[in-house]
């Protein structure tokens, strides 16, 4: 395992870390014992950073992380997020009393005294423009409740706005072969300011595994079913904002990336890790096999300049204009 510094903080995190949305819920059926085995396997392989949120399974993911990392709090770092268990458009949700309550609840579920990275969970842009929530986070940081803070964003515009606040130390963004826009301006700006980049949804909700066909179906409780058209939250969180059938068809044009790299999953993760402005990628998982497959990306060859150019051309010519929603 290789480690990268999170911006200009003192945190050094595994370049492949893991997100825990899938083991909390909204990705179909999940088994807690399999989730715990997956977490243990990841840590055995050197993973030292996990991303979660209070809404993942209504605290389920945070509780699983507490169980898995008990006694390892000094070397296993946890990032969690807040605000989406309430009305994200209500300014009161970002008040000091409210944010403190969110923070204390997460600390209790995580069974920790401090959160390593506390993130606002995809707030509306008017909340970011107001900026008063960052003053609250500054207080929590000064008190030792949180080590650093950042923002999970939906759009490049939101990310650039966050960079105007000096104590934002990390941005969590959607970035993958189907969503290349952030690499153009946001990533270089963040790197120059010492702000870390966490990449979520690196496999475009599974499209970039190459395993789906137009006939693939998903459990009604899986966001790939109920949020396919952005009915519950930002459409970009599901299949990178692409219509499912379109995404499947486009994925077939990418099967060549697996050549010499084992499979499309590992290749898609390697493509992200090849970007020097990235701190880490946080794929999801539901079992040990998925953890091991994702970690396999560490051993596969990087992309050549010619290959990267080929993928950038595909994005510009056939993908960019088909993505729905602001990004």
From TrEMBL:
InterPro entries: AKR_Detox_Biosynth, NADP_OxRdtase_dom
Domain NADP-dependent oxidoreductase: 15-315
UniProt key word Oxidoreductase: yes
Enzyme Commission number: 1.1.1.-
GO molecular function, one term: oxidoreductase activity
Keywords per UniProt: Oxidoreductase
Gene Ontology cellular component terms for the protein in this record: cytosol
Keyword Oxidoreductase part of the UniProt annotation: yes
Enzyme class, first EC level, given as a word: oxidoreductase
Annotated protein name in UniProt: Aldo-keto reductase YhdN
Species assigned in the record: Paenibacillus solanacearum
């Amino acid at each position: 395992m290789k480690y990268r510094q999170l911006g200009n903080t003192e945190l050094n995190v595994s370049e492949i870390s893991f997100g825990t949305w899938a083991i909390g819920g909204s990705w179909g059926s999940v088994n807690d014992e399999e989730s715990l085995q997956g977490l243990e396997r990841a840590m055995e392989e050197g993973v030292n950073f996990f991303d979660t949120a209070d809404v993942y399974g209504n605290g389920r993911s945070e509780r699983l992380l507490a169980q898995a990392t008990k006694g390892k709090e000094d070397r296993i770092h946890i990032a969690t997020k807040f605000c989406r268990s309430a009305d994200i458009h209500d300014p009161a949700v970002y008040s000091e009393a409210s944010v403190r309550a969110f923070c204390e609840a997460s600390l209790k579920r995580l069974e920790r005294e401090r959160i390593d990275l506390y993130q606002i969970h995809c707030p509306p842009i008017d909340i970011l423009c107001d900026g008063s929530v960052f003053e609250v986070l500054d207080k929590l940081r000064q008190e030792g409740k949180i080590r650093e803070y950042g923002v999970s964003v939906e759009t490049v515009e939101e990310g650039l706005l966050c960079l105007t606040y000096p104590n934002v130390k990390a941005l969590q963004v959607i970035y993958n072969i189907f969503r290349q826009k952030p690499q153009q301006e946001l990533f270089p700006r963040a790197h120059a300011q010492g702000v870390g980049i966490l990449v979520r949804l690196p496999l475009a909700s599974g499209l970039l595994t190459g395993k789906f066909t137009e006939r693939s179906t998903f459990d009604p409780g899986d966001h790939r079913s109920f949020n396919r058209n952005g009915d519950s939250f930002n459409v970009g969180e599901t299949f990178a904002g692409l219509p499912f059938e379109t995404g499947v068809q486009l994925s077939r044009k990418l099967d060549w990336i697996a050549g010499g790299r084992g499979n499309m999953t590992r290749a898609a993760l390697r493509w992200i890790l090849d970007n020097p402005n990235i701190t880490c990628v946080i794929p999801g998982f539901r079992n040990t096999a998925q953890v091991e497959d994702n970690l396999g990306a560490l051993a596969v060859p990087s992309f050549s300049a010619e290959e990267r150019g080929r993928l950038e051309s595909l994005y510009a010519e056939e993908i960019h204009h088909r993505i729905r929603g602001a990004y």
